[in-house]
């Protein structure tokens, strides 16, 4: 079941990231300055990368079946919400304190990838 959940979350986040990228390139180009547009694009890039990470976790889950992979998936999903979400809101509102919470999402990404590595290192569960 874990593989299905993370495949679904990965696919939905790829859908959202593609839409956000197109919206940034076409709908926000005339409304945001170059700096805010770059912040928006950073959110899109990290959302796409970690949506692919969720899909990778879904693909690894049947082979490794580790609770570490479940933790990794939830950390990546939380990272997308906090990291990319805070950058999207920052770009749209220019509320600068949001930049202070963005690294929390980055820590979620780092911890998630570390758990993926640990799950693979430990090998398949019996």
TrEMBL record:
It is found in: Membrane. Keywords: Membrane, Transmembrane, Transmembrane helix. The keyword Membrane applies. It is a multi-pass membrane protein. The keyword Membrane applies. The chain crosses the membrane at residues 40-61, 68-91, 97-121. InterPro entries: DUF423 (IPR006696). GO terms for cellular component: plasma membrane. Belongs to the UPF0382 family. This is DUF423 domain-containing protein.
């Amino acid at each position: 079941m874990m593989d299905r959940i993370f495949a679904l979350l990965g696919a939905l986040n790829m859908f959202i990231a593609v839409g956000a990228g197109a919206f940034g390139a076409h709908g926000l180009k005339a409304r945001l300055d170059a700096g805010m547009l770059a912040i928006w694009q950073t959110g899109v890039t990290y959302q796409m990368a970690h949506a692919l990470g969720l899909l990778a976790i879904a693909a690894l889950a049947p082979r490794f079946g580790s609770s570490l992979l479940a933790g990794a998936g939830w950390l990546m999903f939380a990272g997308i919400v906090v990291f990319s979400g805070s950058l999207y809101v920052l770009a749209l509102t220019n509320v600068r304190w949001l930049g202070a919470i963005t690294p929390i999402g980055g820590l979620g990404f780092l911890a998630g990838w570390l758990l993926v590595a640990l799950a693979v290192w430990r090998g398949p569960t019996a």
